[in-house]
Specification:
The chain is an alpha+beta fold and 155 residues long. It has seven helices and four strands.
């Protein structure tokens, strides 16, 4: 039994939408990676609490670097990878931290990110895990490797 469907003028005005809607739903999303990242969620970061502090020196995620470029209105921010000698200096400084501070960092520090041309000496910011515990990351200016303490304190 075949039925003939008759389109009335009232129904015809919905025809373009009925044709286009399924096509629009099949289109890939154009969301950028930054729109899919939640900067205050620990799940947006790579975090391993078992890694020694000195091994948490890593490249800042691109989306986070872009966010700080916008925040500070500084397009010249770029990833800095400390040289072997600089990593040794940094590891030595971490080893000299007071025990309670080192312990807190071991438990809650996501990573140390070095950023060239950073305004100031560094930035510390926080994120949370699903239970609400606070974790931090540090963005550091590598100029400290090339400067005296007096120069670093006056950046």
């Amino acid at each position: 039994m075949n039925r003939l469907i008759v389109m009335t003028p009232r129904h015809r005005r919905f025809l373009p939408a009925a044709i286009l809607l399924p096509l629009l739903l099949l289109q890939p999303t154009r969301a950028s990676a930054a729109e899919l990242i939640f900067p205050r969620r620990l799940s947006s970061y790579t975090f391993d609490a078992h890694r020694p502090l000195a091994e948490r020196v890593t490249d800042i995620p691109g989306w986070l670097l872009d966010a700080w470029r916008r925040t500070d209105d500084e397009p010249r921010y770029r990833v800095y990878r400390p040289r072997k000698e600089e990593k040794k200096i940094f590891a030595s400084a971490l080893a000299e931290l007071p025990g309670p501070m080192r312990s807190a960092l071991e438990d809650r520090l996501i990573g140390f990110y070095f950023v060239e041309n950073l305004k100031g000496n560094g930035i510390t910011d926080w994120v949370r895990d699903p239970s609400g515990r606070v974790f931090v990351y540090m963005i550091l200016n590598p100029a400290g490797f090339r400067s005296t303490l007096s120069q670093v304190l006056s950046i």
